[in-house]
Amino acid sequence: MKRRRLAMCAAFVLLSACASSPRTSSPLPSLSPAPASSSTTSSPQASTPDTGSGTSVATSEIANAARFTLADVPSNGPCVLAPPSAAGQITFVIASRLYGVAADGTLQCLADLQGLSPTWLRWSPNGDELLVGPDTMLRADGSFASTGYFANNINLRWSSPTGKALIAPKAATGQLIWRDAHDSTNRIDVSFADNITSAAYHPAGKHIAVAGIGRDGQGPGVFVASNRGANAQRIGTLEAGTTATEVAFDMTGDSLVFVHQHADGSSHLHRYTFANSTLLTLAELPDTTPTQLTVSPVDEGDVAWTQSYSTVNSSARLLLGDSTTTAVVANSPEGDHISDPIGWLPGHRLLVNSRSPAVAADGAFELWEWSPTGMSKVIDGVTAAAARSVHGQYNELTAILGSGFG
Ligand SMILES: [Zn+2]
């Protein structure tokens, strides 16, 4: 049987890899970027500094009319947490009720959140349970439970493949804490690096990756270990003065995407592929560090992030498939606004928020859906949203993690 190994020789030095240009390849599927000669002052990215790394969708492909208005939202009546669908579901919160848009386009109430007003939602990998903020879970039976994590710990992630557990680095200490998703008192410190800022479960569930400071004396990097933190292994040595800030596995589990931040404020988005130990530079950002790294759980290779230039101007960017050519801007047509990726739906569709910088971070926003054919507004006045997508097929990481340093 052919088995992939995560051997010690998989470690690489980013110094040389980062100096090389991004690989070029054909985007999948093909995109329709706007003409570069667009000169209208109503350009969606009019206030976004031009780094040469983004392309907006053509204005003609933007549907400004919202699919739903508040009048379409049933503000009372029963709520039913219907099972997840393979087609995926747009979900959002208005006035402490969770709504979902079914595949046939109908809007239904999924749950009364009983006064909770989350600003952050995250569905489990199989789509049956929801984190209503990092501190509370909505279970499949409709009941609520405490997760044991702080309400502001948005680095919380579900375990895979089914979401039986949760992991998050503690903001204060960088320790990685694992908890049983259904018994928050069942808690384990599974740290295998120091000052961990981001952690991700491999889709098959047997490994965890983190960004942090190695315990091998070689400084910051990206590390993989068992799901109990054993047999830690460095998969990259970063040049001095740089650090990794966020990590996320591709939906297949065959590669790992991570943010590489440099001391001068520039950064890279990299993809490390385990089978052949190759490192790609997906994006080179001269003056900002991506945040909100969001990898599709259903379409291989799709990745999105927030590109922020100030507290009042950020942009959602994305790359599809194995494209490393041009990051696409997935913003609403609003002129000055903050936009972030929220989550991926099947069919290369990305939910994004759009809110005025005058509105507080916990205020209401416009919910938009980007797809390879354009942008459309879903609804205004949302206080939280999430993509309810059932994780697609993945491969085991058949690594032999026996020669690490943990
Ligand atoms: Zn780099």
List the helices and strands and how they pair.
Layout: H1 14-19, E1 54-56, E2 62-63, E3 89-94, E4 97-101, E5 107-112, E6 121-123, E7 130-132, E8 136-138, E9 144-146, E10 157-158, E11 165-169, E12 176-180, E13 183-189, E14 194-201, E15 207-213, E16 220-226, E17 233-237, E18 243-249, E19 255-261, E20 267-273, E21 278-285, E22 291-295, E23 303-310, E24 313-319, E25 327-329, E26 341-345, E27 349-354, E28 365-371, E29 374-382, E30 384-388
Zinc ion is lined by residues 14, 18, 260, 268, 270.
Q: On the 0-100 scale, what is the average pLDDT? A: 84
Strand order of the largest sheet: 1-25-24-23-22
**SS content category:** mainly beta
Please give the largest β-sheet.
5 strands, mixed
Q: Provide the helix percentage.
A: under 10%
Distance N terminus to C terminus? 28 Å
Compute the number of helices.
Answer: 1
Bound molecules: zinc ion
Could you characterize what this model shows?
With 406 residues, the protein is mainly β. It has a domain at 45-117 and 298-390. Helix content is 1%, strand content 40%. It contains 1 helix and 30 strands. The protein has a 5-stranded mixed beta sheet, with no helix packed on it. Strands 2-29-28-27-26 form a 5-stranded mixed beta sheet, with no helix packed on it. Strands 5-4-3-30 form a 4-stranded antiparallel beta sheet, with no helix packed on it. A hairpin with a 5-residue loop joins strand 8 (136-138) and strand 9. It is globular. Zinc ion is lined by residues 14, 18, 260, 268, 270.
